Amino acid sequence: MIKKSNWSDTETRHAQLDKQVLESKTAYYGFKPVLPDEKTKRVVQHFNRIADKYDLMNTILSFGIHHQWKRAAVNLLNLCDGHRVLDVCGGTGDLSILAAQKIKKNGLVAVYDINRAMMEVGREKLRGHPCEGRIRFVQGDAETISFPDGFFDAALVSFGIRNVTHMEKAFKEMHRVLKNGGRLMCLEFSRPKNPIFRRLYDFYSFYMMPCLGRLVVGSGQPYNCLSESIRLFPLPRELSAVLENIGFSPVTYRSLTNGIAVIHLGIKSSKSKL
Questions:
Q1: For the chain, what percentages of helix, strand and coil (3-state, to nearest 5) are there?
Q2: 218 in helix, strand or coil?
Q3: Of 73, 149, 169, 173, which one is least surrounded by beta carbons within 10 A?
């Protein structure tokens, strides 16, 4: 039984990988074991519930630091004028807007997300924005990306891959749609490095975040689930190994704010086969 405020052990984290999910026919929605298809349904319901307050809650819960994390992550992609970018689990489009500012008028950013409610919030946010014309919203599952092989110069996923039932399948799809030499960026939560800071973070995650969720969204449950899913996610070296096995090389990572968030960057080698 997984206990609140305890970070999962190696075996439990590995249970989130595709092979174990397929063999056990069990995925985790937070700490709760569910059927894989059930996890997908619950994730959609989860974001339907919080979509209109999603951006506001991100700013409140991170004290605004998530904007710095996102800027740093997009800067690492070294995007250029004319690049085509895929924003997987792109939701309300924060990173897409940052990417669109880099690729200028000749480029294209595709926000790809399973949740229509989140994308509708993103569309409204973009209304009248200078980048509106170069961002497109496409509804779809990250495990089956509806774009051709080698179509994009860069792919990014920000705070969304934890919610994908078959994580490795989604990364393989991102690898497939990238050109040779294309870059993948993954920004995700992780375990703080300092043990004392980690205890404070646990208290904040399991007590303060749900309380704020009840006040702003009307329910603390989505933020309990958020805290739980973070504690099940692979640690930086483990995720690096996953990306390398898929065919990204080299893979590097950078920790942010004592390790609360981590940016992984991988390059699709010219030797990779589409």
A1: 50, 20, 30
A2: coil
A3: 149
DSSP state of 259: G
- Average pLDDT for 142-154: 97
User: Residue range 183-201: average pLDDT?
Assistant: 96
| Alpha carbons 220 and 274: distance in angstroms, whole number | 43
User: Would you place residue 189 in the very low, low, confident or very high pLDDT band (cuts 50, 70, 90)?
Assistant: very high
Supply the DSSP string of 34-92, one letter for each residue.
E-HHHHHHHHHHHHHHHGGGHHHHHHHHTTTHHHHHHHHHHHTT---TT-EEEEET-TT
- Helices 36-50 and 116-126 pack at an angle, to 10 degrees, of 30
Contact 206, 227 (CB under 8 A): yes
Instruction: Dump pLDDT digits (tens) for 193-214.
Output: 999 999 999 999 999 999 999 9
Give the residue extent of every domain in the chain: 10-268
CA distance 209 to 51: 17
Class of the 10-268 domain?
Answer: alpha beta
Please confirm whether the linkage preceding 222 is cis (ω < 30° from 0): no
pLDDT at 185 over 80: yes
40-to-142, 173, 227 alpha-carbon distances in Å? 11, 17, 18
Instruction: Report the distance separating Cα 261 and Cα 248, nearest Å.
Output: 21
pLDDT tens by residue, 11-36: 889 888 999 999 999 999 989 999 99
- How many alpha carbons fall within 13 Å on the CB side of residue 158? 24
75 Cβ neighbours under 8 A, 6+ residues apart: none
